[in-house]
Write a structure and sequence with these properties.
Layout lengths: L4 E3 L15 H16 L3 H17 L6 E3 L4 E3 L4 E9 L9 E8 L6 E3 L4 E9 L11 H4 L2 E8 L4 E8 L5 E4 L6 E2 L4 E6 L2 E8 L3 E2 L6 E2 L5 E4 L2
Antiparallel strand pairs: 1-2, 3-16, 4-5, 4-15, 5-13, 6-12, 7-8, 7-11, 8-9, 9-13, 10-12, 14-16
Helix pairs in contact: 1-2
């Protein structure tokens, strides 16, 4: 019998999982705190300890139990839905599609998860600007990385990591030809950003603008 929920990745063996890209930032700030403490500079020591805590919280990577409904499309990011509408076309598909955009603040978990099962057809990186990620033009003007996936039903979708005003580093860990699983971690964007999801036009939308969603746990839509 199929389980309604499951793990996409192995659960962490420690109580507060942290994404690996954050470790250099955490170690550096903690090391500086130690140096300031040795030099007898309490103000700077406290400041760097606080900075270390903030960076650790930003790079937190909690385990998520993934809904296993066959046709469910799960959220690739934590944040707020700012767009949920049919588009005449997209930069990745020359046909109408459903676009869902999720805006992440610096307070959200920034590890990104795959919305659907499938096979990576292409990974397309675009250099660009760093305007605020909640603006419509961020989809076309900002630095971004698109992962195009061929779905098991023969259709295709794309999930696009978009840098924002503060975000300056997009991390993607998948490559063309990779088989991906719904809820699988595939990358992150450092320090505030946005993700766009492009789905087939006939996909049944399950969220609305203003909804708060969680990466790997919230269902955005259902494939037909």
């Amino acid at each position: 019998m199929n389980k309604p929920f499951d793990w996409a990745d192995e659960p962490a063996t420690w109580a507060f999982p942290v994404a690996r890209p954050g470790l250099p930032f955490i170690y550096t700030s903690a090391f500086l705190a130690l140096i300031f403490a040795i030099l007898g500079m309490p103000g700077l020591t406290v400041f760097m300890l606080f900075t270390s805590l903030c960076i650790t919280l930003f790079f937190r990577d909690p385990d998520r139990v993934i809904p296993q409904h066959e046709k469910a499309v799960i959220s690739p990011a934590d944040g707020k839905v700012i767009i949920a509408e049919i588009m005449d076309s997209s930069p990745y598909f020359d046909q109408p599609c459903l676009k869902i955009s999720i805006f992440m603040t610096v307070f959200n978990v920034h590890v990104n998860r795959m919305p659907c099962n499938g096979k990576v057809a292409d990974v397309i990186y675009h250099p660009g600007k760093f305007v605020s990620a909640n603006l419509d033009k961020a989809s076309t003007d900002n630095e971004r990385n698109a992962v195009v996936v061929n779905l098991e039903n023969g259709q295709s979708m794309a999930v696009v990591q978009i840098a924002g005003l503060i975000a300056r580093r997009i991390i993607s860990q998948v490559h063309p030809g990779d088989t991906v699983q719904k809820g699988q971690r595939f990358g992150m964007i450092c320090f505030g950003s946005r993700l766009d999801v492009y789905l087939p036009q006939d996909t049944e939308l399950h969220v609305k603008v203003g909804d708060r969603v969680k990466s790997g746990a919230s269902i955005l839509a259902y494939l037909v």
